[in-house]
Specification:
Layout (H helix, E strand, L loop, with lengths): L2 E4 L4 E4 L7 E6 L10 H19 L3 E6 L6 H10 L3 H16 L18 H13 L3 E4 L2 E4 L16 H7 L14 E6 L14 E3 L3 H11 L2 E8 L3 H15 L4 E8 L2 E3 L2 E2 L10 H5 L4 H9 L7 E2 L2 H24 L12 H19 L4 H18 L7 H21 L15 H16 L3 H13 L3 E4 L4 E4 L1
Helix pairs in contact: 2-3, 4-6, 4-7, 6-7, 9-10, 10-12, 10-13, 11-12, 11-13, 12-13, 14-15
């Protein structure tokens, strides 16, 4: 059974989806006023892996991750550069896709809504909150009344309202009933973009957008809400309050939060100036190495980021790739009758499959799952030292290589770079043989065409005839 550490309950819980065989998931995305840093990349990579694992287990996943494209920082950036808010949003959303494509995020089937495209939905929820007595208008602003939700507020972050009032640094405003009340709608200032509303010209507060978009695409109650630890309070706490009061339902049933990335033991943040842009890191290390680095630690633990850590991740990934390459090369030779069956490798393969699933089922323990892969790689390398391997042994090697590829590429999303020598035959020579075969097919010399195909297959090279060209693979 798959278990998730639910921040809301503070413990591991068995995952039970609302609909059997389906998972609904909302993850807070970036505010697009700058290029994303390595800290932004961690939740993007981790929750992409969560989605992939659910699909590996046979679930149908509906995955929503938003773009915050209206915000104080964005407005400031647009004014500094003398462009529109839309220009800033487009520039950095395009940059986001450019950067994250290199760490192999699975965009197919993703829902990526923008805040500015859902102003109407936000206004509708705010109106409902006012009508129900959970919010109030004050001089063109609208605030959520914390004391109207006093009983449950703080449940996610484990804080009481009294503790928050005495210990939190919260802006005091004369137009708010309570310093903890948070903005749902902000009155427009001179030179700022705005939308018309029942309370005058203005724009939404930060928190309301996620409530509106999750409700639109997933409903009032859905399975999983995710994001970084820094979002637990106030963002996710406020989402729960306004969503439960404004849309009904239970909102998110499971809350998953990834840990921080540290630089020299200190939390990475833009305010401290100790952050690295993802695109800067990608200039030095391939995206597959960055992704492997992120997944080599448990998602709830902090990660120490440094060039040395990435170099170690690169070396580890190359160990896996080299084993896969050796396995594929072995498969281009012929099995030996009476050779070894590699039963030890078969035992470790079956064990690795079980260990990988058990690790991932225990709160998406990617580090443990990768450990199971390394155990299999070690045994594969040992098996490949055998000079005489039977047909049954070849089948075990093929199953092992295929399994490693599936786990690494399809589940963990880490693309493998594997270069294989096909005996003494070069790629050019294979292409030349296929060219001769195409000429034979054009001349309806089917006997020669089949002979080339069969001979290549004996060498471990499969060919596939398409309408316009013939492709081959090992």
């Amino acid at each position: 059974m798959l278990k998730i550490y639910n921040t809301l309950k503070g413990e591991l819980e068995i995952f039970k989806p609302l609909k059997e065989g389906e998972v609904s998931m909302y993850v807070c995305g970036p505010t697009v006023y700058n290029y994303i840093h390595i800290g932004n990349a961690r939740p993007a990579i981790f929750f992409d892996t969560v989605r992939r694992y659910f699909e590996f287990r046979g679930y149908k996943v509906k995955y929503v991750q938003n773009f915050t494209d209206v915000d104080d920082k964005m407005i400031k950036k647009a004014n500094e550069e003398g462009v529109t808010l839309q220009d800033i949003a487009k520039k950095y959303i395009d940059a986001y896709f450019e950067d994250t494509s290199k760490v192999n995020l699975k965009e197919e089937g993703m829902i990526r809504p923008k805040a500015t495209e859902h102003i109407g939905e936000m206004i509708k929820i705010i109106k409902t909150l006012i009508e129900k007595g959970y919010a109030y208008e004050s001089q063109g602003d609208v605030y959520f009344d914390i004391n109207s939700y006093k009983k449950e507020y703080g449940e996610l972050s484990g804080q009481s309202i009294d503790d928050l009032k005495s210990g939190a640094r919260i802006d005091v405003s004369e137009i708010k009933k309570d310093p903890l009340d948070f903005a749902l709608w902000k009155k427009a200032k001179d030179g700022e973009p705005y939308w018309n509303s029942p309370w005058g010209k203005g724009r939404p507060g930060w928190h309301i957008e996620c409530s509106a978009m999750s409700n639109k695409y997933l409903g009032a109650t859905f399975d999983i809400h995710g994001g970084g630890q820094d979002l637990i309070f106030p963002h996710h706490e406020n989402e729960i309050a306004q969503s439960k009061c404004g849309t009904g339902g239970d909102f998110a049933r499971y809350w998953i939060h990834n840990g921080y990335i540290n630089i020299k033991g200190e939390k990475m943040s833009k305010s401290l100036g100790n952050f690295f842009l993802l695109r800067e890191v990608l200039e030095q290390f391939e995206g597959r190495v960055v992704r492997f680095f992120i997944l080599s630690s448990h998602y709830r633990k902090p990660i120490d980021f440094s060039d040395n850590e990435l170099i170690q991740s690169k070396a580890g990934l190359e160990r896996i790739e080299n084993a896969v390459a050796r396995g594929k090369e072995k498969l281009t030779s012929k099995p030996i009758e009476g050779g070894v069956d590699l039963t030890d490798l078969k035992v470790v393969l079956d064990s690795s499959k079980d260990k990988f699933v058990k690790c991932m089922d225990e709160d998406f323990n990617t580090a443990g799952g990768i450990g199971a892969v390394f155990e299999l790689v070690k045994e594969l390398n040992k098996a490949l030292e055998e000079e005489k391997i039977s047909k049954a042994g070849f089948e075990v090697i093929e199953d092992t290589v295929d399994y490693i590829r599936v786990v690494m590429e399809e589940v963990l999303g880490v693309l493998l770079k594997v270069e294989v020598q096909v005996g003494d035959m070069t790629t050019e020579l294979i292409e030349f043989l296929l060219e001769l075969r195409r000429e034979a097919r054009d001349n309806k010399d089917w006997a020669f065409s089949d002979k080339v195909r069969d001979r290549l297959l004996e060498m471990g090279i499969k060919i596939k005839d398409g309408k316009e060209k013939t492709t081959w693979s090992i």
